[in-house]
Fold DUF2809 domain-containing protein.
Amino acid sequence: MNKSRINYFIVFLTIILLGILSRKISFIPLWIGDFLYAVMIYILVRIFLPFKNAFLIAFLSLLICYGIEFLQLYQADWIVELRKTLLGRYVLGQGFLWEDILAYTFGIIVVFMTEKITLNCFNQKSA
């Protein structure tokens, strides 16, 4: 897989679809949606910074995920109203949970390792 923005965008859209489906199918554990959210954030950061080091992408992605999660502790009227909308609920979440932090961390680690393995395999085949 090369570091094409188009490839990453296709993966990004696929992750969004899987994340939405994970919330609609009752037997899928809720942490899967948070895991996929972290993967989506990693891919989104990668789209904007396609040639940056994967460690930097992982670090920035974790900062974004953790920042959004800790922002859920902020309960001003305007942000509570924003969270009541569909987009606000999907982007900002509903309430702070330590389990979400764990799911985000796991998601970032998995997508980071997957990208490293995939790119290493691609680089070996093209050499």
About this structure: DSSP finds six helices and no strands in the chain. Residues 54 and 115 are 8 Å apart (CA to CA). The chain has one domain: 5-126. The chain has a mean pLDDT of 89.
